[in-house]
Amino acid sequence: MELSEAYPMTGGDGLHSYAKNSDFQRKAIDVAKQLISKAIAQGLDVGDFNSTKSLGIADLGCSVGPNTFTAVDNIIEAVKSKYESQIPEFHVFFNDHVSNDFNLLFTSLPQDKQYYAAGVPGSFYDHVFPDASLHIVHSSSSLHWLSGVPKEVTNNNSPAFNKGRITYANSGDEVIRAFKAQNRKDMDRFLHARALEVVPGGLVILVFPYNPDGTHPSRIPINMSFGLIGSALMDLAGKGIVGEDKVDSFNMPVYVMHRHEVEAAVERNGCFSVVSMEILPKVRENFSSNDSVVDEIVGRARSATEGIIKPHFGEDILDELFDVFRKKLAEDFVPSAKTVDQEHLFLALKRKP
Ligand SMILES: C[S@@+](CC[C@H](N)C(=O)[O-])C[C@H]1O[C@@H](n2cnc3c(N)ncnc32)[C@H](O)[C@@H]1O
């Protein structure tokens, strides 16, 4: 088994926490709600429920809440309206990396929840549930995180060495190829594990940032934002605050898939049919000013990346790094407002018999 690296969102409920900086990801869950209902109404095919049978739901990459609770409620509401007279008991498994703040997740579980809850630590690129034990798997805003950075991009003897950058988006073909290959391997692992865990007729519902065909990776908002963190790190290297070699040995394990890469992965795996694949309506932000856009993006990026930046560069650089990042965002990124709308793909897969 290949080990996955772990880089959870910032825990707790402080200023920089994921819990306080994940409105954007919640909006992706909100816009997916109708499609989830439709996929469950038309696609879920797991037979009848009687008093002895419960329905297993897993949310992969659940983080700390509250978004995961909204997603789970949406799924349960859809199942209830499908089965009306024969409502099963629900067993919900919240999965994330072992270092995720599961304490916060458990202490914030809704008091009026309609399900039994359990935490399942471990990488979703591995087999983390018993065979044929899940009826619905959901994952939102998580699948763009790779199991790790491709080794060659931090190896200065490799043609894919990604010097001075922390994403593949503005890099040469070798670097892009290395990230693509990592994503391909990861998607194969992800679907292989789900094919074992999901019962025939069960669903895998995925919502993730995606790259509309034809868009160069450097124009994808999430890549642009992480690219600016890289540029901010290089500024700190220029001032001697971090070593340049430290920047060269650091990359974000993130890849934003094209639709055809998703389709190819499903086809290679062969165990699922596609119930629905749709581009979600854009997650639009209603900001009163450019400053508030910048605040939102800085908060979102910091809560998502501190967990990976801190172990490599240390905690002391964080405030200055995100100050520089904020300035770059305000100057380079936000003025072209339409680029802050990251697009998401909705994919519902049914486990074949
Ligand atoms: C941006 S958060 C999304 C959280 C939540 N699903 C939402 O929509 O708000 C991404 C989550 O995926 C988790 N994650 C990333 N890679 C993972 C992996 N290989 N296995 C389990 N969780 C993973 C991260 O730890 C993080 O909590």
Task: Summarize the entry for a quick read.
The protein is of the alpha/beta class and 353 residues long. The chain has one domain (23-351): Vaccinia Virus protein VP39 (Rossmann fold). The protein is built from nine helices and eight strands.
Q: Could you describe the 3D structure shown?
A:
With about 350 residues, the protein is α/β, with parallel strands linked by helices. The protein is built from 9 helices and 8 strands. It has helices at about 25-45, 65-85, 100-105, 175-195, 220-240, 245-250, 260-270, 290-315, 320-335; strands at about 55-60, 90-95, 115-120, 135-140, 200-210, 255-260, 270-280, 345-350. Strands 1, 2, 3, 4, 5, 6, 7 and 8 form an 8-stranded mixed beta sheet that branches. Helix 5 (about 220-240) packs across helix 9 (about 320-335) and helix 8 (about 290-315) packs antiparallel against helix 9. The model has no long low-confidence stretch (mean pLDDT about 90). S-adenosylmethionine (SAM) binds near residues 8, 29, 63 and 147. One of its GO terms (molecular function) is metal ion binding. It comes from Rhamnella rubrinervis.
Bound molecules: S-adenosylmethionine
The tally of helices reads 9
Average pLDDT, rounded to a whole number, is: 91
Spell out the helices and strands N to C. HEHEHEEHEHHEHEHHE
CATH architecture: 3-Layer(aba) Sandwich
Low-pLDDT segments, ≥5 res: none
CATH superfamily: Vaccinia Virus protein VP39
Q: Helix share of residues? A: 40-55%
End-to-end Cα distance: 26 Å
Number of strands: 8
CATH topology: Rossmann fold
SS class: alpha/beta
Largest sheet: 8 strands, mixed
Percent of sequence in beta strands:
15-25%
Count the domains. Answer: 1
Shape: globular
Rg of Cα set = 20 Å
- In CATH's first tier, which class applies? Alpha Beta
